[in-house]
Amino acid sequence: MREVTVSAVSGAPVEVGLDASDAEMFAAVTERWRRRLADVWADRPDLVVLPEHAARPLASLDPRRMLPVEQIDDFTRTYGERLQGFFAALAAEHATHLAWSGYRVDDAGLLRNSTVVYGPDGNPMGAPYDKNYPTMPEMHRNHVAPGREMVVVDTPIGRLAPTICFDLNYTEALERLAAQRPDIILFSSAYHGGFMQQYWAYTARSWFIGAIHPPNLSEAYSPVGDKVASSTNYRYHFTKRINLDYRVCHIDEHAEAFADLKNRYGRRVKIHDPGRVGVVLITSEDPDLPLAEALETAGIVDVDDYFSRSITARNQTEIKPALLERGCSPLSASLSV
User: Fold this and answer.
1) Closest CA to 284 of 300, 307, 306, 308
2) Quick one: which of 232, 235, 229, 225 has its CA closest to 210?
3) Is 233 exposed, middle or buried (0-12, 13-18, 19+ CB in 10 A)?
4) Could you give the CA distance from residue 139 to residue 130 in angstroms, rounded to a whole number?
5) What does the pLDDT average to over 177-184?
6) For residue 283, is pLDDT > 50?
7) Which of 184, 190, 235 is nearest to 205 (CA)?
8) How distant, in Å, are the alpha carbons of 37, 63, 126, 199, 297 from that of 99?
9) How many CB atoms lie within 10 A of CB 318?
């Protein structure tokens, strides 16, 4: 068992007047997030995920009344580092990991839409993740430069994979991310994405924590696509304990092994069947029992290993024509592997 407590905290963007100064915008944004994050500190989360543009002020919640691009650019270049410092200090104050998402200026002077994971000491962990697939208005109007790498950040609590909003539409991004075997996908967004959240969680065999602007709900999904937590129309946050000592395994050829696993370890392991997809989520419920050890003892392989073996068998299998002899069914076949 390797449990961590995760929180997603969202809220409507901060509205400011068109004539607001950079200092006024900074004060409004930091005060808003100080109050919003106060909702989860009592739960002592190990990880907090914030939505896309967590610190970007708006002239109105109506997207047709945006602040001028030049004003946002100036605000980011003037107060961007101080804003990141504000969230870094909160991570250190509460000894947690905090995924901040918003505009930043990189070392080359380019504007990026990024997620930075701050550690319990307030320092950035790993490289910032730059949104790989900004929308066309972001690139053409706001001059946001796209990222090129899907980033996984190694931390003491697990392998964290930030993604941002429009990224969710691109299976190529998912494939690159899934190959790195993250433990938790951190989805900071202004749009929900619907069933694509479950698809990413299942395909990456990863927990999925979404922090999304209202009126959309922020939600969490298990590696088999079950919704396990959600914000509501009243509360723009949730906190959930998740178990990172897990494996996704296919049910085929594992019935006896699953029974053996339960008979050996009883309540020390949990086998959850979400139904309809042919896989189960197995977790160790005992901090002294590494799941990998238990699965090896029972002869259980994870779903990707099983699928790989199935592909190998397919490629090595020759189906011979049925022998149309007396008493031999036309459907009979000789199978050689």
Assistant:
1) 300
2) 229
3) exposed
4) 13
5) 97
6) yes
7) 184
8) 12, 25, 12, 22, 37
9) 8
The two tokens of residue 294 are 């238990």
Q: Specify the residue for token string 């011979």.
A: 320
| % pLDDT > 90, the chain | 78
Residues 131/113, Cβ–Cβ less than 8 Å: yes
3-class DSSP state of 194: coil
Q: Hey, which bits of the chain come out as E strands?
A: 3-9, 47-49, 97-105, 111-118, 129-130, 153-155, 158-164, 184-189, 207-212, 219-221, 227-230, 237-243, 246-250, 269-272, 279-284, 318-320, 334-336
The whole-number pLDDT of residue 100 equals 96
Q: Is the pLDDT assigned to residue 71 strictly greater than 70?
A: yes
Q: How far apart are CA 12 and CA 32, in angstroms?
A: 10
User: Sign of the C-alpha dihedral, residues 302, 184, 222, 297?
Assistant: positive
Q: Compute the distance between CA of residue 173 and CA of residue 182 in angstroms, rounded to an integer.
A: 13
Return the closest-CA partner of residue 293 out of 265, 267, 253: 265
Rounded Cα gap, residues 304 and 4, in angstroms: 24
**How many CB atoms within 10 Å of residue 123?**
10
pTM attached to this predicted model = 0.91
CA angle 193, 197, 201 (to 5 degrees): 165
> Which pLDDT does position 332 carry in this prediction?
46
Q: Is the pLDDT of residue 324 over 70?
A: no
Looking at 30-34, 201-205, 315-319, which range is the least confident one?
315-319
